[in-house]
Write a structure and sequence with these properties.
By secondary structure, the chain is α+β, with helices and mostly antiparallel strands. It has four domains: 106 residues, OB fold (Dihydrolipoamide Acetyltransferase, E2P); 110 residues, Beta Barrel (OB fold (Dihydrolipoamide Acetyltransferase, E2P)), CATH 2.40.50; 49 residues, E3-binding domain (Dihydrolipoamide Transferase), CATH 4.10.320.10; 215 residues, Chloramphenicol Acetyltransferase. It has twelve helices and 26 strands. Strands 17-26-25-24-20-23 form a six-stranded mixed sheet. Strand 21 and strand 22 form a beta hairpin. The two termini are 30 Å apart.
Amino acid sequence: MATVINMPRLSDTMEEGTVAAWLKKVGDKVEEGDILAEIETDKATMEFESFNEGTLLHIGVQEGDTAKVDTLLAVIGEEGEDISELLKGDADASSKEEEEENASNVSEAPAESKMETPEGVVVVTMPRLSDTMEEGTVATWLKKVGEQVEEGDILAEIETDKATMEFESFNEGTLLYVGLEEGDSAKVDSLLAIIGPKGTDVSSIAKNFKIEDGSSKAIESEQETKVEAPKTETVSETKKEAPVQTKVKTSNGRIFVSPLAKKMAEEKGIDLSQVQGTGENARIVKRDIENFVPVVSQHSSAPVAKFVASGQEDVDEVKHSQMRKVIAKRLAESKFTAPHYYLNVEFDMENAMAFRAQYNSIPDTKISYNDMIVKACALALRQHPQVNSQWFADKMQLNNHVHIGVAVAVEDGLVVPVVKFANEQSLPQIGAAVKDFAGRARKKKLTPQEMEGSTFTISNLGMFGIESFTSIINQPNSAILSVGAIVAKPVVKNGQVVAGNTMKLTLACDHRTVDGATGAQFLQTLKGYIENPVTMLV
């Protein structure tokens, strides 16, 4: 399916960009990470790389032309794909936007243009750090009000719906105001901070700035931040600021570390939780990794149970992470818009168990039951494209390629990395891909592109001892398979009760695209592959 690439916001003040040069032309193959174009912003000319792969089907802004942020820049998809509807839709949207802009110019200028900004003062807004980001959460501030900010300094770490990312300043001056406390969220383009000459009064700017969700707050003024607390601080007061050279983590356990230090630690196998940071705000920097000496902890890492007096009610409040909020939104939309129904089956796993044991006897080879299920589903989906379909408002899309999403549990919720062209991959290749995805998912290292494009999803809770369960469809997919544990139990074979091993699976289907008989036929084909796994190798 074609992907629309919009003009990116490459700086916090960027409103439009000019294409200085295209490094790809229509018809060229584009790989993830390729430089698509050089884009001139209000600050500099920057390289813009592709987060997608495919063929460059359309260019929306020619070299030398200028376009506003979020307008159509290019379209990438499969060679020969029809994108006329996408281009038509973009033209309609552009026309409507232009009409609305003209109307607003005639009637009244935007509220932001009415504000008189003192010379040298820059309003920094919540950046759009991913293509699907609608709002962001400030995980931590690395600068505080009153501190000097240089161009390139990391202002804050911002949690999006995909990951926690560093946000650097494109301006220099004094941090005069911050609009969000750590842990607070705001929509893209809401007030994040104000930078300018030291001593400038920006209270009127902060007060008048339009904040869409009302979550921005005034933080201590510069004068207040200079007041030092007495040495006899209470315990609660000392928590407000961490001492220098101590390990500092955000509320979700994230460690403050520079990208270079993190890379060096990974190469040396150093556990960052054992490293004391000596950089600004106790940030771990290059020298900390170079000088690190492993220390064996003499204290247990087991969590300490919280004491609660008998008969006393007690609660802990945990703020929703961006990931949790997005998961909640999408699952609710799926559950209440797609008419779910469920098909339950139980497969004989004797041959599968024997097949896996024999396959893993090959040197340097290890596959899991989950790998076998991914491969079996991929092959079955090629025979049942209706189950490999997707529902859209004006059409149903039957996918001839098989991209299987594999649900992975992480600390903040659930992510679904995608094994692309799973039917074309061998069992060891699938196993290596899933293992890599799962490891990086738990470290929040997956890229947005690795979690996009699934045509079918598998959720496996068998390793937790769950025998059967149902899942909510990962839209716009038409189905999701829930996989339970392999259970040893008495079974009837040839009229005799014998010892056996079975596994229960549940297929959740969207009735708009998959009828009951269609789902049942898919499960019959899947049964053939699982109960006779050698057929997957033919």
